[in-house]
Amino acid sequence: MKIFNGKHARNRALVFKLSPVAAGCTVFLSALGANVYAQDAAVSQAVQATDANGNPISQVTVTGIRRGIEAAISIKKNSNSIVEAISAEDIGKLPDATVAESISRLPGVTAQRDKSSGRASAISVRGLSPDFNGTLLNGREQASAGDSRGVKFDLYPAEMLGTITIYKSPDASLMGQGIASTIDQRTVLPLDFGKRTVAVGYKAMRFGEHNNGLGTGTGYRSTLTYIDQFANRTIGVALGLVKFNDTGAEQPQSDGWGGWTPKLADVGSPLYNGQNVVVPGGFKTDIQRDPQTNKGAMAILQFRPNKDFVTTVDLFHSKNTDSTRKTGIEGAICGSTGSYDHVGVLSNANIVNGVAVSGTCSEFKADVRNHNEAVVDTLNAWGINSRLRRNDWTFTGDVSGSKVKHDANRYETTAGLPGNAGADTVSWTGFDGKSNLSPTYTTGLNYSDRSKIVLTDVDGWGGGLSGNPQAGYVAIGVTTDEIKSGRLSAKHDVELGPVTAIEFGINRTNRTKGRDQNEGNLIIPGGPYASAPVPGTDTVVTPLGMPVAQFNPLGTLGSIYQLLPKVDQPIQTDKNWDVSEKVSTGYLMGNLEGELFGLSYRGNVGAQYVHTNQTSVGYVVDTANCAGVAGQACPAYTIQGHHSYNDFLPSLNLGFELPYNQMVRIGLGKTLSRTKMSDLRPGGGVTLNNSYPGGARLTGSSGNPNLEPFRAKAFDLSYEKYFEVNGAKGYVAVAGFYKKLDTYVLSTSKIVDFAQLGLLSAKTALPAGGQYAGSSVGVLTTPTNGTGGNIKGIELTASLPFAMLTKYLSGFGVEVNHSSTLSSVNLLTTGLSVIDTGGVTTIPLPGLSRQVTNLRLYYENAGFRASIAAKHRSDFLGEISDFQDNPQLTYIKGNTTVDGQVTYEFGDKTMLKGLSITGAINNWTNSAFDRFAANPDNVVEHIRFGRTYSLGASYKF
């Protein structure tokens, strides 16, 4: 038998007892209550006791900011991989209200704010977009809303989670990994607690405190957590409920039309005194309300009849409702946006350096906008995990499911002056020649006057007299994503040189995702110039100072409007599809421990073999024979795609223990991230392009059912120094990483034979003349696996309680981290939402902010806790949903958000023991959300969300 010295014996015991416990397990954990997927050790800050069966019981005795920080430090320190962690400060209390806000404070992690609510939503890790993260719940892959795989973290209330661990280096036993990271969210386990525990909380909230006269929103957040044990601690139960409500604050929004600032000749307008001057292109300005609700529920049942067997059943439900209501006005200045909108003539202008700094344009046809976008996301996840120990063997079985249903309804209405004659004037001052948001605008009409402003087809967007009227638009769609998985694994403790345990297993995941979309024009019966009164009497003053008529369009279909279905090519092919994936994974991993060059080390080495079988169903549309108007479909038929491929993913993690509580970690591996499922759709549209250089030629677009994943090789290196002085714990770390992206999915154009691809219908017209006469060969734009590039960066982290410096600063502390990331990946501007690219033909990696900094100062003493936190990220390329419900890339300006929180918890010697009072301010500096074109000075959309104030109480007993 191998003999270990005292230090190695302690390490070996630690690996044996805690190695199955993931860094993503709950704060309150024990060896026998761990989930099978947990791989890294986490040391519980608890007093250990045992029940009648000799099972360890965790009796939590420490709470608060330091509790959460020290538990997270223990997770990081004892992990075999390179990880970052967030741990609950108490039962049902992560540092922030949402998961995204909490983990965006970690090194190398940042979040994009939702442009409707201002809350952190999409998570980027190490400069890669959310689709490059694998997201798990209790170690199991999770379904997502929308077309992509990026999970909406709003569906996971922070109160129902104990810890969140971000794996930055790959691990052979971890399923659902991503190139950027794997984010594992963990719920509590009831048998980890020493007694019954109940916690309730209520928080009153005010949203959108702008101090500018706009309406604020009110809301609340209520929580209940119940944990108990029965039958001599052989049965454990945990229940959690969360309810959140936000009536929505008024948010000012201004859109500068992508920075389009034309010259008069560009829009067909007469020159001004012979000068072809620059004029504003157009503007859109809204007041938006975004009421939201969330209802979450969690139930966990554990059965552990003895120390060798445990079964855990967990259920998780969450439902988000988001109803965005916009009221505003939009219009072209001197140009035209439709057949009823005639080109204007410039007058009374002040010209400076070729720019009409001020002036007036005639023929202004403005559209009063009253839109409502309602989204309901419903998540249901479940899992059953059983583990049996026999001697040196541990056998585990796990089955699970995750399903998200995304229901979206979008109503758009227009009001203004009806008909093909009669228009307004618009004047401006202060135009800088660059941004359409720089001037002050004045209109001749009052757009809140219901005697003149009516519901109608203002501009002839549906084709006017030659087509169909369009007094509005409606889009109703459902996206459903479902994952079912099963796993069997075994682990055997061995003594084979440095190998202390061998783990192997198989995992099967079946995933199906589909989208079904119906859209169409809203028309008012009576012909092209038909109109109807704007209901109600409400008005709103837009951010540009223009009063407009306001009403809620929900319920108007059938009472005011009729629906004219629109079934053209983009709707049928891009928004209606089904994709199925069957992924089989076999893995083998060895846990390592030993000495090398006199240094003790621990870690793991292993590999996954992954077989993927994907099938998809889509539509082929003959765009050459489309009617071209609403209500009349293009000829279409279904088409199927199928592809299978294999991947071999090796990985190695080593952590070397240096003197004085120092550690150096190395991570090597190959990882993959799967592309958006919408990209896997087959089918598309083919049309005869008569304007193609060289003569008429077939062109088209489609998905690609043969797409394979993004693949990358990764190298990670980390140095960590841990401290413990005067009972206070902290650490500093420096980490560097390099990822070689072997493949990257790009949207490219290539020469194909449409007939061979099955995209050519019998009705598609072929070129009649020119060099491509009679040819089915043409140009197809489609997602393609191309070569990648590299991404590299450095991360600096410090978590320091000031008591380490002097006892007089006991209770004070700081957490700070900074990351700098660079990438050689450059993409084509395809899919960019702004018009002006400044002549640039490539764009950077989506999600990449070169600089990200987080700072948190805190104080905790005698029941009093206070903290202030700031998050900063530099400019980046983000993703939003456009007016057609399609994802679009867009430049977003960097921002800094500041949050503050104060809590007082009554002590054990008071009658109010267990009660705590908390007040908080979020977005303290009212940081704006700005999109820009070409350069940060050219802002095309400006949104302010205001501050959020909250005051709440919680009680634990």
TrEMBL record:
Gene3D superfamilies given in the database record: TonB-dependent receptor, beta-barrel domain (2.40.170.20), TonB-dependent receptor, plug domain (2.170.130.10)
Pfam families, per the entry: Plug
Principal location class: membrane
Subcellular location: Cell outer membrane
Transmembrane segments: none
Domain TonB-dependent receptor plug: 77-178
Keywords, ordered alphabetically: Cell outer membrane, Membrane, Receptor, Signal
Name by which UniProt lists this protein: TonB-dependent receptor
